[in-house]
Design brief:
Layout (H helix, E strand, L loop, with lengths): L3 E6 L3 H11 L4 E8 L15 E3 L12 E4 L7 H8 L4 E4 L7 H15 L2 E3 L8 H12 L3 E7 L2 E2 L1 H8 L4 E10 L1 H8 L8 H4 E9 L5 H9 L9 E6 L2 H7 L5 E11 L5 E11 L2 H21 L4 E3 L6 H4 L4 H8 L1
Parallel strand pairs: 1-2, 1-4, 2-3, 4-5, 5-6, 6-14, 10-11
Antiparallel strand pairs: 7-12, 8-9, 9-10, 12-13
Helix pairs in contact: 1-10, 2-3
The protein binds NADPH dihydro-nicotinamide-adenine-dinucleotide phosphate.
NADPH dihydro-nicotinamide-adenine-dinucleotide phosphate (NDP) binds next to helix 1 and helix 10.
Length: 329
């Protein structure tokens, strides 16, 4: 079996996750990791796989089938995805929801010019959650959709707490409010405010002698991040933070509550739930499945930028169409 040759661009949490995910997909092989840092500063988990400086990608068009871009959405992907989309099939997990149309346009122009296939925003949200929202809304046109995130670590909110003077380190968890989940599951299709849907919990390591009451006030009144939520703040030691809050768990729920029947008298509820010990490792698993689709669509000449909505589920699966029909229908 000819393996799909994969290059990883960027070796952070997500890049490492892709390295692990590829081990579970024997139809793919890791050709190399490409980084902006000195290659000798990285230690991969897979013996024998080379680490290259990012510039080495120029000239490797014949050696890599699909690039998995694992950089950050804020600054890396807006520059890297359009830069490589004309020369490689690629997949990214761009997650700045408001900027997806502009990112799509930039990647699409490059991919079409080079006759390559690019799939953007292929994580879990955006990504799998987007697919479920679209599918459930199409099936139940009379209804309401809801998305809840957590319990999970939000990097953006953790960073916001770390920027407060007197804070040495912090972790922030986003948590769905149980009463809101119950209300949605009841089929009442409730109207919920921001505060009614999610709460926030912060674990903070304060600098020695810092005024904890002031830090707590600065957190719970912070506009955009915390002011619209019920927020709990706990202070703890650096050792406790590392011991108890070192992971990157996440997850969430997508619901669609609808009505069916002659008088729309019957309730129908779609519920899709993710519980993830590691957000980046799961996101990497999603990217890896979409790499297979990018390769197949690329081979079929379907050039341009795609999102998860444009990918046939069969293109994600390692099974052949015959096996899929036999095993999963
Ligand atoms: P990281 O901050 O761990 O890595 C981002 C980049 O920073 C890496 O590609 C790497 O590039 C560089 N980097 C990593 N570690 C270091 C370091 N120690 N020193 C200097 N540079 C470093 O981000 P994540 O991997 O956790 O996440 C990447 C993106 O994935 C996020 O920005 C988010 O947008 C997206 N994401 C999307 C999800 C979705 O559902 N759609 C879910 C989760 C994440 P290089 O090797 O070139 O230096």
């Amino acid at each position: 079996m000819d393996q799909i040759r994969i290059g990883i661009v960027g070796y952070g949490n997500l890049g490492r996750g892709v390295e692990y995910a590829l081990r579970q997909n024997p139809d793919m092989a890791l050709v190399g990791v490409f980084t902006r840092r000195p290659p000798s500063s990285l230690t991969l988990q897979t013996p024998g796989v080379p680490v290259y400086p990012l510039d080495a990608l120029d000239g490797m068009e014949g050696a890599v089938d699909v690039l998995l871009l694992c950089g950050g959405s804020a600054a890396d992907l807006p520059e890297q995805s359009p830069r490589y989309a004309g020369r490689f099939h690629l997949v990214d997990s761009f997650d700045t929801h408001a900027n997806i149309p502009a990112h799509f346009a930039a990647v699409d122009a490059a991919a079409r010019a080079g006759g390559k296939t690019a799939i953007i925003s292929a994580g879990w949200d955006p990504g799998l959650f987007s697919l479920v929202r679209a599918l459930a809304a199409a099936v139940l046109p009379c209804g309401e959709s809801y998305t809840f995130w957590g319990r999970g670590v939000s990097q953006g909110h953790s960073d916001a707490v770390r920027r407060i003077p007197g804070v040495r380190d912090a972790r922030q968890y986003t948590i769905p409010v149980p009463a809101a989940l119950d209300a949605v599951r009841s089929g009442a299709n409730p109207a919920l405010t921001t505060r009614q849907k999610h709460m926030r919990e912060c674990f903070v390591v304060a600098e020695e002698g810092a005024d904890r009451a002031r830090i707590e006030q600065a957190i719970i009144t912070m506009p955009h991040y915390f002011a619209d939520y019920d927020t709990t703040v706990h202070f703890l030691s650096e050792e406790e933070l590392l011991r108890d809050h070192g992971g990157l768990p996440h997850g969430g729920f997508v619901f669609r509550g609808g009505r069916t029947g002659r008088q729309e008298q019957n309730r129908a509820l779609v519920e899709f739930k993710l519980t993830l010990d590691s957000n980046p490792e799961f996101t990497a698993c999603v990217l890896t499945a979409f790499a297979r689709a990018a390769f197949r669509l690329g081979r079929a000449g379907q050039a341009g930028c795609k999102t998860v909505f444009d990918i046939p589920p069969a293109a994600l699966s390692p099974l052949s169409p015959e096996e899929l029909r036999r095993q999963l229908l």
